Amino acid sequence: MSSTSELEGGCLCGQVRYRVRGAALSSSVCHCRSCRLASGAPSVAWFVVPLDRFEWLAGAPVERRSSTPVRRSFCNRCGTPLSYRNDDAPARIELTTATLDDPERLPPTHEIWHADKLAWAASDAALPHFEGERPVP
User: Fold this and answer.
1) Domain assignment of residue 67, yes or no
2) What pLDDT, on a 0 to 100 scale, did the predictor assign at position 5?
3) What are phi and psi of 116, to 5 degrees?
4) Euclidean distance between the first and final Cα of the chain, in Å?
5) CA–CA separation, 76 vs 3, rounded Å?
6) Is 28 inside any structural domain?
7) What does the buried/exposed string (b/e) look like for 86-99 if buried means 16 or more CB atoms within 10 Å of the residue's CB?
8) Distance in angstroms (rounded) separating the CA atoms of residues 90 and 108
9) What total number of domains does the chain contain?
10) What is the reported pTM?
11) Residue 68 carries which DSSP code?
12) CA geometry: angle 68, 14, 29, nearest 5 deg
């Protein structure tokens, strides 16, 4: 993503929409148990952006704590998981890559929490794998 790029996305029903300006800090696939339980999927693709380059365009997602330091948001109408915020990184927001209007523009560059990956879940052998979290620059 170039520094002048803009991406938009939203939930399944269209009630909640968002926009991101500029380059993503990170783009990954997460295999952690927490993401699996929150999504009902074997893994979740996320991208990270500075909060000051992100805005909700329409609707207001519901936000809930999924653990002490973590808040996740979702559409209150259709249930689409949208964002992840960690109290340890208050200036960043993580967004579910598949909710982008064009998710092909932001493919993952690595996989995280590979130690938690389900044995039958797919993994991209061409990407770097991290047993736990990979530090975001």
Assistant:
1) yes
2) 87
3) -95, -5
4) 15
5) 32
6) yes
7) eeebeebbbbbbeb
8) 23
9) 1
10) 0.91
11) T
12) 50
Task: Give the separation between CA 36 and CA 38, rounded to whole angstroms.
Answer: 6
Measured in residues, the chain has a length of 137
Q: Quick check: is 129 in a domain? A: no
Q: Is position 126 within any domain? A: no
Q: In CATH, what number is assigned to the domain containing residue 86?
A: 2.170.150.70
pLDDT tens digits, 19-56: 999 999 999 999 999 999 999 999 999 999 999 999 99
- Residue 28 structural domain: 6-116
Residue 31 contacts residue 118 (beta carbons within 8 Å): yes
Read off the pLDDT of each residue in 107-127 and give the average, rounded to a whole number: 95
